[in-house]
Design a protein that fits this description.
Elements (H helix, E strand, L loop, with lengths): L3 E7 L7 H19 L3 E7 L3 H10 L4 E4 L13 H9 L8 H7 L2 H10 L16 E5 L13 E2 L9 E5 L5 E8 L5 E3 L3 E5 L13 H5 L4 H5 E5 L6 H12 L4 E8 L5 E7 L9 H8 L4 H13 L21 E2 L6 H12 L4 H17 L6 E6 L5 E9 L6 E9 L8 H15 L4 E7 L5 H9 L3 E11 L2 E9 L4 H5 L1
Parallel strand pairs: 1-2, 1-3, 16-17
Antiparallel strand pairs: 4-5, 4-6, 7-8, 7-9, 7-11, 9-10, 11-12, 13-14, 14-15, 15-16, 17-19, 18-19
Helix pairs in contact: 1-10, 2-3, 3-14, 11-12
Length: 489
Amino acid sequence: MARRCVVLHPLVAPDAPADDADVLAEAASVATALSTLGWSSEKLAIALDLGAAAKRLRADRPDLVFNLVDSLGGFGPLCAAVPALLSALGLPFTGGGSASLALTSDKPATRHALRRAGLPIPPGPEDGWPGPYIVKHATEHASRGLGKRSVVPTLPLLEPGWYAEAFLDGAEYNVSLLADGRGSCAALPVAELVYAGDWPADMPRILDYAGKWDRAHLLYARTTRRFAESPNGVRELARDAWQALGLEGYARIDLRLGADGVPRVIDVNANPCLAEDAGFAAAAAAAGMEYATLIGRIAAHSSSPPPRRLPIPLPLREGIGGGVLRWHLIPADQAAIGGLCRDTGFFSEAEIAIAEELAADRLTRGNASDYRFVVADGPNGAMLAYACYGPVPATRSAWDLYWIVVDPAVQGSGLGRRVLDAVLAEAGSAGASQLYAETEATLLYAPTRAFYAACGFHLQAVLPDYFAPGAGKQIWVRPLARDPAILRG
């Protein structure tokens, strides 16, 4: 029987701009290539309602999801929610995980991560760069927002959502990278962008939106690519960026030379276009790789058991397989909980202090505490995950999930779901009818919301500007089965 693959792509509106509509041709090309390789493939569009996609994928589980989602609802950074959803469903998928997609969807954050890793990037205002500058949108890809007025002689007054870095007028290169199956990547032939000699004098040499997507525009035909020997350091820098940003599967790194001839990273795309006429396929062709072979290689790397899986079983009941889950706290857990929350990068110090206070309350008051805990320990005794939960005071059957935190090293392994299952089992056996969870309605928490949706929660209410202006609170609810045996399986 043929292996089944779902080619997942964003839902595209009839009046969508060219860069969004292009994903339909990409999905068709990938599906056709998979068919030639013996896969049974079908295309599935996903929208902001992740629950609908989760229901479809859970009911008819494919062997692989080929993830082409680079935006949701026309908003690029939300693409990070999709691998989080697929991980929660336990489905193998192509491309990067939620962490790398979230990071590279935020360009200033990507700059910070590359700088922290000691990799060269264009100077910015923080470096005292006098100019010229190129002004970019912080979260848009596909050259959105780039045009004639994007390059300016000095630092302008920036609107929210935009940033500026030094404009480097040297040669520009695209490096397409493929996972090599050994924890690193291989670089395909390097493409140099060529801006025609009769380039308009009033237009900076950049690939702006019109030049990339409008076939009738003057600059479309004057921007080409060529594959030739690249300067020393270009391939190496691209591979270093892959490692520094935790990229997976395939990616494209864009670099540009400064006046000093040093290549610097100017953009990172962790989910680049795989259409047959796109740059990634062109780089593969330059290496002598047919398009179907390229798609097959990407699928093959994702078809093997992914590293997101834990190497040990995690049972739900204490005393089996080493008793990984436990329902009691020990004194060392208070500090371990604070450290685990801090390692995720999600929580402020004030929030971490609250998490530690709840653990202290349980340790001090025991069963009289309103807060219950389940903890997952690793083989070396280190805390890998925990949940804090309990009945809502003054209600008959409502319970709250106050915290559920998983070590970043094992996120996507299914451990979070096992911990949640333990919470559901206890709440159900105690007569609870629903479990509530709250989260921020911000980009940072998109993977959290995807996890809730995949685990049977639905969005019940939204309180705008609850935590801060622009940071609302979402209230999610999971109905519980009345028969605790159903919950315990």
